[in-house]
Amino acid sequence: MIIKFFSMEDHWQIPVDGSHSINIFYYPSIDSTNTRAVSLAREGKPEWTVVFASEQTAGKGRINRIWWSPPDLGLWFSVILRPKIRVKSVNLLNLALALTIRSFIEKLVTEKLPENPPRIQVKWPNDILLEGKKICGILLESEITPQKIKYIVAGIGLNVNQGRDDFPADLSSRAISIKMVTGENYVIFRLLTQFLKYFYNDFNQLREKKFNYIVSEYENHLAFTNQYVEIHLQDKVIAGVQKGIDPAGNLVLSGSQGDVIVTAGDLWGFTEGNSDDSDH
């Protein structure tokens, strides 16, 4: 496959099986891949349309944060999904996305470190931690009616080629990249192709199984289980011991008044006196 890149936007396809391809819109620089992908979703672009950029100037993190996305150091992209699932199952889709990305990262680093693979966990609802530091974040934006999921845009930011000094000072102690673990520099476009093929196959297998067993698998890799955590909402903080995930994909905390079901929020975990609330 020969790929040519132009100054504003380029478009190519990655075949993933005999009859399907992933359509990619590439930008050398863009404000936000999620913003562009949402626009394409509203125009009716099909599932597995991807917006990918070498750099984001206003990448979106959760809770209106900016996702730090410097040129050519990570995978910064957004995928349009149009899942035919019940609306009430949308949280399970969120868990499935996190597990698919976690398993891909595990595959990459285990190939280089088979004797001593690092610990890779998910932080509810949709962050990936490698040795307790953030390596990947997921941001979902969607249009959902009571009867139907019209689209979900999954924005993914994966730290790939950063060294410790490449991170801003406020992130350097809390963030990590694949290179910092494996010692290898990765060709970003090649890694994107590798990831999207893996993502397509793994995610569709989970979807065919209707996300059965997704909660138990997610809990197997869940960070901060049986530890004190805080869930920061717009107007309050919910605190308690993290117990696990309920069948709908919500977080279960044990608090002073009994168990609390948390459907959304920003989780702060506390380890050795340091809060893990990083986003970039």
Chart the SSEs and their pairings:
Layout: E1 10-15, E2 21-27, H1 33-43, E3 49-53, E4 56-60, E5 66-69, E6 74-81, H2 90-112, E7 120-123, E8 127-130, E9 133-144, E10 149-159, H3 178-182, H4 188-208, H5 214-220, E11 228-232, E12 237-245, E13 251-255, E14 258-262, E15 266-271, E16 274-276
Parallel strand pairs: 2-3
Antiparallel strand pairs: 1-2, 3-6, 4-5, 6-10, 7-8, 8-9, 9-10, 11-12, 11-15, 12-13, 13-14, 15-16
Question: What does this entry look like structurally?
Answer:
The protein is of the alpha+beta class and 280 residues long. It has 2 domains: 10-217, BirA Bifunctional Protein, domain 2 (2-Layer Sandwich), CATH 3.30.930.10; 225-271, SH3 type barrels (Roll). The chain is built from 5 helices and 16 strands. The protein has helices at 33-43, 90-112, 178-182, 188-208, 214-220; strands at 10-15, 21-27, 49-53, 56-60, 66-69, 74-81, 120-123, 127-130, 133-144, 149-159, 228-232, 237-245, 251-255, 258-262, 266-271, 274-276. It has an 8-stranded mixed sheet with strand order 1-2-3-6-10-9-8-7, with helices on both faces. α2 (90-112) crosses α4. The longest helix has 23 residues, at 90-112. The protein is globular and about 55 Å long. The relative contact order is 0.15. Residues 1-7 have low confidence and may be disordered.
